[in-house]
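Record format v2
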Amino acid sequence: MQEALRFIQPDAAIVDGPDFVERARSLRRGPDAASYGLALTIRGLWKSFGDHQVLRGIDLHIPAGQFVAIVGRSGCGKSTLLRLIAGLETIDSGTVSLDGQAKLGGQAKPEDVRVMFQEARLLPWARVLSNVEVGLGRDRKSLDAKVRAGKALAEVGLADKRAQWPSVLSGGQKQRVALARALVGGPKVLAFDEPLGALDALTRISMQRLLERVWREQGFTAILVTHDVSEAVALADRILVIEDGRIAHDFAVDIPRPRRRGAADLAALEASILRHLLRSADDTSIA
Amino acid sequence: MSVIESLPRLRAPRPDRLIPWIVPLVIVLLWQAACLSGLVPARVLPAPSDVAIAGWKLVKSGELARNIWVSFWRAGIGFLIGGSIGFGLGLANGLSELSSKLTDTTLQMVRNIPHLALIPLVILWFGIDETAKLFLVALGVFFPIYINTLHGIRTVDPQLREMGRIYGMNDRELFRRVIFPSALPSIFVGLRFALGIMWLTLIVAETIAASSGLGYMAMQAREFMQIDVVVLSILIYALLGKLADSASRALEQLTLSWHPAFQNH
């Protein structure tokens, strides 16, 4: 296991100690680097589609750089919450603020929040490299756009695919290109909407490691919506369970990284979260 | 057998390019054989060699080049006019709800009138001068281009539009980088339909109301019982149609190289 980690993670020295997170943070791009994540505060957030109330009063504070997973049964409103954070839907009432700067509905600074979806959403008519360049937003016309896009591609291990069409890539490779596109602009908040849901089990595991690595290197605030509790447990600092449009449980995951898949403490936490989810599922089916 | 085998080696490094021409060649050979053997009387169908001789005469007198040029010019200008109006309206109605509400219903009504049914009206309006032919070609070409452009833009993947918005594309960039490339395969379908309709319309219009052009040449030949010239005109139409189709295919290859259907070719 440790061997495998070294293979994926060349700077394995920093993962060995118990305080690796602190040390990893100190290795980031300097004390005032723009790549630090932003804190996210949500107050009294309501959202309905027609008669259906999807979110009923969400209050949530996510500190800068935290990795939060949001789990819940389908239709519980977890994806809607993510879309509201990303500014893809309008807010009925309440506020979503990044570092104290409130925004209502619209997106004040779109380059701060990036989203990765279950589908890669690559432009089929653009080569891999220009797909990554899309992620630079307004900077994509700058002189170093290609260099930056190339670096982001190398980061996800696809430097050799830069001149390919997306249609020849595998599902996992497409998602890695989508990740490079999301990373290239140096996002403060990165929101994942079931990004690994369509991948096979092995690809999913290596993608999870990749996500964890880039999060540690770049320090953005990560919000992962997933239906896979084991994925949440493997990646997140904190797991929110959403039920009926409200945050029903808020678990802190203080299991040190690197986390070994299948370890007893992870399995125990996963089981307890699943119990909560299943219990509420039984409640609703009886009601 | 030996001829076919040695042909590719003699001429082209890409033998698969010659394969599509085998069937037309065989047909011409059979046709020549049938005429020579007297199976088909020359009054019904002249031999390919006679058609070639008639063609050579027309080439020498300059009549053929002049008529082809006239037809080509009519087809091209009519296509440009009808095609650009259809493309423009397709874009407008695909991108703007207001424009679509305003014009789409009307256009769909007009579309159901066969444009060749307008020939009597067009002759009354324009006589038999150039305007009549250009009008008919433009009208025929307009609808396939309009409908397929509109369809292409309406079916752009909303997930890609959303992606473009997330990454801060403005309307112009969104059109250039997402909407237009996505609509392009559909626009090409319209283009190829339109090319077919372009020739059809022109043949009919020139046969009925013209004093020059390939259709006129064929009608004139009928008056003088020059059946070889009639057959020649028909063959030239086939060749010009093939040429237009090849041109649009080449354009597709060039612009749709990203498309899985155009890879490994």
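Chain A has one domain: 2-33+64-89+111-286.
Confidence is low (pLDDT under 50) at residues 1-35, 104-108 of chain A.
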